[in-house]
Amino acid sequence: MIVWNTLTYDQQKQALSRPAQASADSVKEKVSEIIRAVKARGDEAVLEYTRQFDCPSLTSLTLSTTQLAALAQQVNRETRLAIQDAYTNIKRFHCAQEQPSVVVETRPGVVCEQHTSALESVGLYIPGGSAPLPSTVLMLGVPAQIAGCDNKVLCTPPNAQGTIAAEIAFAASLCGIEKVYLCGGAQAIAAMAFGTQTIPKVDKIFGPGNRFVTEAKQQLSQRTDGASMDMPAGPSEVLVIADDQANPEFIAADLLSQAEHGEDSQAILVCSSQYVIEQTQAEVERQLQVLARQNTARAAMNNARYILTDSVLDAVKVSNLYAPEHLIVQTDDARALLPQIKNAGSIFLGAWSPESAGDYASGTNHVLPTYGFSRTCSSLGLSDFVRRFTVQEISQQGLTQLAETICVLAAAEGLDAHKRAVSIRVQSLQEAAK
Ligand SMILES: NC(=O)c1ccc[n+]([C@@H]2O[C@H](COP(=O)([O-])OP(=O)(O)OC[C@H]3O[C@@H](n4cnc5c(N)ncnc54)[C@H](O)[C@@H]3O)[C@@H](O)[C@H]2O)c1
Ligand SMILES: N[C@H](CO)Cc1c[nH]c[nH+]1
Ligand SMILES: [Zn+2]
Fold this sequence. Notes:
Belongs to the histidinol dehydrogenase family. Helices cover 45% and strands 17% of the residues. By secondary structure, the chain is of the alpha/beta class. It has three domains: 2-22 and 235-377, Rossmann fold, CATH 3.40.50.1980; 42-103 and 124-229, Nitrogenase molybdenum iron protein domain (Rossmann fold), CATH 3.40.50; 395-433, Single alpha-helices involved in coiled-coils or other helix-helix interfaces (Up-down Bundle). Helix 2 packs across helix 8 (185-194), helix 8 runs parallel beside helix 9 and helix 10 (248-259) packs across helix 11 (274-288). The chain binds nicotinamide-adenine-dinucleotide (NAD), L-histidinol and zinc ion. Nicotinamide-adenine-dinucleotide (NAD) binds at residues 30, 53-54, 127-131, 133, 136, 157, 184-186, 208-210, 212-213, 233-236, 261-262, 265, 325, 366-368, 370.
């Protein structure tokens, strides 16, 4: 247990350091090598890496529409209904995010508009290294479908048998996704950014992934021949703020729910009660015993932090410093803390709002910024799948009214041609009026 108010500034930084960044340099180098290979050799390189990391016997990167439909058929009724229910809630929440066009007459005859249009071609990355994530298909596919993106390209790593989980195929079919490719990791991101003989080039790439995926997104977003990216959404993080009223069993379950994603997941409890921290630690140990992914969760819990603060408000300050992907608030009046919370990808208020609800079915998006990027990046939403553009239409009267302001500002900037583009019009109006 870490007692926050005894730490120096450097110790506080250390207490909130993220495990996934430790090996960043070797990951950077490996990812650069993969990107270079995909750029130079296209499909051949993607296939080579996919054989190396995912499926040694793979012969084709494509999953045909017939194969996709056959896989989707294999999903049992219970799972099918659950995927459909989650789809409905996610669709309801994301449909409500639609932005109406803005039309404003800033002064008579000067009409300014803002509209949106769907991105034409989007790449959806669905993680599959450690667990296939059909829920992520919904989180990316639903907003892409609502926005009306014409081209939806999905990449996900194949399993050792050279195929994908039936649930991924079913979720993809619900979202109207027909182009599915069997590749993962940095090679999949590079393939969608550059385009290969088989995999179409896309304008923007979405989706979470491990450190190789996240690094590839970062590197490719900085290249003129790359693609835009949604956000850095890497290894899962959860931070729980709790007080002496919180239930240690619930807290432990929430910490473990993210720890089981991967060894580099991070779980942090910041709590104003030493008793609750100690009970939670004991409970984590008890619950670990029965988890199927006990080894992964245990390894991640080695990076867990239990931080004792003087008050709940101090706990919020610690959380703001860390800027977690997910923040769960299990305190007496959780909503009352909301105005103090500055940085968090998605916030879960109260004892009955576990993070798993947002991961699967409540309706919010589970693709969220990690590594502290929740300070500046938003959780994924409909607006990420559209671009905004403005339109203006100015009448003779409108331009005449604006002319002096424009001409004075253009002169102040020493840009004569700008000034002339207005004055020439105003003069023509004055001459016509003579
Ligand atoms: N932040 C979010 O919104 C969010 C949402 C869902 C999942 N996640 C995270 O996504 C991650 C999924 O990771 P995953 O590993 O299960 O699947 P993944 O699909 O992201 O990664 C698997 C791929 O990693 C590549 N890879 C593995 N070892 C490699 C190596 N040594 N060198 C180069 N490439 C290598 C392989 O190409 C493989 O196909 C988890 O960390 C999970 O926490 C985050
Ligand atoms: N918690 C993950 C985001 O960090 C999303 C997820 C998918 N499936 C289960 N959980
Ligand atoms: Zn999760």
